[in-house]
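Risk register update: the risk of archive-format incompatibility is retired. Evidence:
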Amino acid sequence: MTHDEIQDLLEGYVDETLDRETRRQVEAHLAGCEECRTILEGVPPVGLGDVVATWDERGMRRAFRRSMLRVAADALLLLFVGWLVAWILSLLILQPFILNRGDRAVAATIATVDAAIMLNPGVTVEGYSYRSGLAARFTEVDLALPVGSAMKSLGTIDSRVGVFGFGDAEGGRLFPYLYDAPDRGGGGERLEAVGAGTVATVDLWFEPTLDPAAAQAIVDSGADVDVVWAGFEVAGTEGSDLAPSGVLGYGTCGSFPITVSDAAGSSGGGSGTALGDPASIADALDETRRAIGSLVEHPDLLTGMGASVDDASASLARLERPQVAELVVTGPTPEVLRFIDEAEPDAVSVIEFDFINWSQPPCGGER
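Archived output:
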């Protein structure tokens, strides 16, 4: 071997990686070459055992913890950046162009309020709120029942409008069945037994149904009560997916109007709509028509409620020849009995009594 070739092999000689014959040739050259011996003396032997020996256990643990902390910090940073990018995409693209296309998100809020009122005799809405998530918009509605001048809280319902559909937060049917009247037909006797000193909210059923003008005439007959909800026949006795009882209606107790509007940035824009504040049976009829018509314009909302456009369209057609099938009345018990005598309903169901606020005017109005 040449002098240069031997120098190239010195590192392998130190690491003891040369084969026996090559090692013998290198050693023979070193015996007579002072230059190569000088180079060899400046290259200390290196081995894994020497490297590991320079680390103690505590140092290795610290190094491992530092490495894990750096990995965790990097992961958190990536998650934050991803979340920020998702929110920006939601605000700029998903909310305005998908969730709220054609004011769909606003319509979903209105539908949540309307469905609660239409499907639950006597129910009114005290307030609502909505918020936008990354891929959905949520509406929460506070429900109450007028009993004289008081409002009995019925809790809240919520709905969700998302990329693929509309329904409640669990994905089921939207409207609650808060109303149940197992004593239908025996309500009058219960009212008489309780007597004066209370207020009551009762549900009156009419079979056959009443013309709206005739029903309004009964309301104006002089009894010191308020009709808080008027229901109109929209299906046969078997009901429908939209109206299981065959009746849809709207409140008439003069609760404050609700304005549904998109705050800046809440869902990427949209219009505002003032829901009605009906004070008569005719106003309740107009609001019921509006509410059903709004659902017809948004079939995906109807689907989320377990109904169809055919159900809603048939209900809307029935309201062209409206018939009052149900009235919910509240007031002092003697006045309610007086109203029942005048109206002569087919069935009376007591929904709620109030033994405290009986001296106050119904629905917060003036006597």
